[in-house]
Design goal:
Layout: E1 3-5, H1 11-22, E2 26-28, H2 35-38, E3 41-42, E4 44-46, H3 51-64, H4 68-74, E5 76-79, E6 83-87, E7 92-96, E8 101-103, E9 110-112, E10 115-120, E11 127-129, E12 132-136, E13 139-143, E14 150-154, E15 158-161, E16 164-167, E17 169-178, H5 183-202, H6 208-223
Antiparallel strand pairs: 1-14, 2-4, 3-7, 4-6, 5-17, 6-17, 7-15, 8-9, 10-14, 10-17, 11-16, 12-13, 12-15
Helix pairs in contact: 5-6
The structure holds nickel (II) ion.
């Protein structure tokens, strides 16, 4: 399941992000790539634990807690502190799969990457190329979102970032371990949750609302690790 979550960051937050990232200490993105992905990766990143990354990452994590769509779609258990990358001058990241288990820098904690997230920080008209292409059983999805929007996609999918041939593409990326490991189960819960919200809004006193709500929670109880 791919989920587009609009307006994660406000315009003011985006301006603050871009100003801070302009002055930040970028390093070669291959520093955090495994053997296979280092062969296709050509971008820049902020070091894990970089003070700018930590400050902006905390801002994104705080924003996520206020987004019901994120909570409903991801059912988050643990989130890796957000990282930041930059592509320009033809930089690209070829087809790869993210590591299944992501260490959390500076701790002994690890996060299983059930979901990958990208928050677009540059306006799409400010660069050419740079689409995130995610492949799933329905084919390839080309994703280029407004600044401040986020895409959630299954952590196990093959994906790439197309070459940026004009301008600069800034983004934040991170991984989420969900309470519900299986993408298909998470999808069922998300659809059921959406239907319950619609029903409760259209017919608030309908006698079926408590029953379908109990089905949601009993499925979550059956599938969740918490
Ligand atoms: Ni990736």
């Amino acid at each position: 399941m791919l989920t587009h979550i609009p307006n994660v960051l406000t315009n003011e937050q985006l301006s603050a992000c871009r100003r801070a990232l302009d002055r930040a200490a970028w390093i070669d993105g291959r520093a955090t790539a495994g053997y296979q992905s280092s062969r296709v990766k050509d971008n820049q990143q902020l070091r894990e634990g970089d003070p700018t990354a930590r400050e902006l990452g905390d801002m994104i994590l705080a924003a996520l807690t206020r987004l019901p769509l994120f909570i409903a779609a991801a059912l988050p258990l643990k989130v890796v502190p957000p990282l930041f990358n930059r592509y320009r001058d033809g930089q690209t990241y070829g087809n790869h799969v993210d590591g299944a288990v992501q260490p959390v820098a500076g701790t002994s904690d690890r996060v299983r990457s059930d979901l990958s997230a990208t928050v677009f920080l540059s306006a799409p008209e400010d660069y050419d190329g740079g689409e995130l292409v995610v492949e799933d059983s329905y084919g390839a999805h080309r994703i280029k979102l407004p600044a401040g929007d986020m895409i959630l996609y299954p952590g196990g999918s093959l994906h790439r970032v197309e070459p940026v041939t004009r301008g600069v593409r800034l983004a934040s990326f991170f991984w989420i371990q969900s309470m519900v490991r299986e993408d298909g189960q998470r999808r069922l819960l998300f659809d059921l949750d959406t239907a319950i919200q619609q029903l409760a809004q259209a017919v608030p006193d309908h006698g079926a609302v408590p029953l379908v709500t109990s089905v949601y929670h009993n499925l979550l109880r059956r599938w969740a690790e918490a």
